[in-house]
Design goal:
- Keywords: ATP-binding, Kinase, Nucleotide-binding, Nucleus, Serine/threonine-protein kinase, Transferase.
- It is found in: Nucleus.
- ATP binds at residue 38.
- Its main location: nucleus.
- By secondary structure, the protein is α+β, with helices and mostly antiparallel strands.
- The protein is 31% helix and 20% strand.
- It contains nine helices and 14 strands.
- Strand 4 (70-77) and strand 5 form a beta hairpin.
- Helix 4 runs antiparallel to helix 6.
- The N and C termini lie far apart (63 Å).
């Protein structure tokens, strides 16, 4: 259990959030760059978020180029470390699970517990930073839409509902760029609010569809939350809604200022007088409300307009699932030579 030599060297801090710090690091043996997220397990809320992310990413048996990959998770107690695996019967792991389930610390609070997630290193910031620092580009928009729909179809196929899709949680990797005409790789990240749907249907060999796995915990970020999430009864179709908000905002460069951080963020909304209201909240109040899509003329063609409207339908049953969405975006991208028709 005790580590003799550290496997990683931390280089610099690259991000800090409410429940963890992210570092750029290198693997000592290979000098390969990785991201290491350090999470202090001092509160039940931190433990729950960390375990949700661990359970989601460790449940994926294959890799996808547009989903962040968890290389390994290290559990540290004071000076001792051990590699953590899903379903482990290690006492340290079980204490964390008990903490998450009971909502109170189930281990000696005098000890320092940390989880270290070793993941892909993304050198291009997040989707907000990348797009808002550049002029709008149709080729980039098309590439990003295809990558995001592919990632979401992969997650839903693997029974994972993300529940917090937003540009802040989509990272940019530019390391593979060796020519100027290639677009960067997107990676969906931050699975702290995700849910793995492990329930089974009538046939035990076939897991229940994520679109039939109903959740009740209202969570996410206001401007990307579907109306049914505000109500507290939703499925994976809430992810489709969030992606609709992101794509609409990306195509038309719709932004708002976050009241807490004062950052400019990509995200579409509804104007009510002088106030801006999240689309999901407005649709919950008025499900028959007609969204003004597009806001700007010639920002998208008729097929794209129709698809975004369906993604943002008040009734989740009227939205495409992730697999239909991926197919339709591929058709739009490769059949249309212009966005202006």
């Amino acid at each position: 259990m005790v580590s003799s030599q550290p496997k990683y060297d931390l280089i610099r801090e690259v991000g800090r959030g409410s429940y963890g710090v992210v570092y750029e690091a290198v693997i000592r043996k290979t000098s390969a760059r990785v991201a290491v997220k350090k999470i202090r397990c001092h509160a039940p809320e931190n433990v729950e978020l960390a375990l949700r992310e661990f359970w989601a990413l460790s449940s994926i048996k294959s890799q996808h180029p547009n989903v962040i990959h968890l290389e390994e998770c290290i559990l540290q107690k004071d000076g001792m470390v051990q590699k953590m695996s899903h379903g482990s019967n290690s006492s340290l792991y079980l204490q964390l699970v008990e903490t998450s389930l009971k909502g109170e610390i189930a281990f000696d609070p005098r000890s320092a517990y940390y989880l270290w997630f070793v993941m892909d290193f993304c050198d291009g910031g997040d989707m907000n930073e990348y797009l808002l620092s550049r002029k709008p580009n149709r080729k980039t928009n098309t590439s990003f839409m295809l990558q995001l729909s592919s990632a979401l179809a992969f997650l839903h196929k693997n029974q994972i509902i993300h529940r917090d899709l937003k540009p802040d949680n989509i990272l940019i990797s530019q390391s593979r760029l060796d020519t100027s005409d290639l677009e960067p790789t997107l990676k969906v990240a931050d699975f702290g609010l995700s849910k793995v749907c492990s329930a089974f249907g009538q046939n035990p060999e076939e897991p229940v569809s994520v679109n039939k796995c109903f959740l009740s915990t209202a969570c996410g970020t206001d401007f990307y939350m579907a109306p049914e999430v505000w109500e507290g009864h939703y499925t994976a179709k809430a992810d489709i809604f969030a992606l609709g908000i992101i794509i609409w905002a990306m195509l038309e460069r719709i932004t708002f200022i976050d009241t807490e951080t004062k950052k400019e963020l990509l995200g579409s909304y509804v104007k009510q007088g002088t106030e801006i209201v999240p689309v999901g909240e407005a649709l919950l109040e008025n499900p028959k409300m007609e969204l003004l899509i597009p806001v700007k003329k010639k920002s998208m063609n008729g097929r794209m307009k129709q698809l975004i409207k369906e993604m943002l339908a008040a009734n989740p049953q009227d939205r495409p699932d992730a697999f239909e969405l991926e197919l339709r975006l591929v058709q739009i991208a490769f059949k249309d030579s212009s966005w202006e028709t």
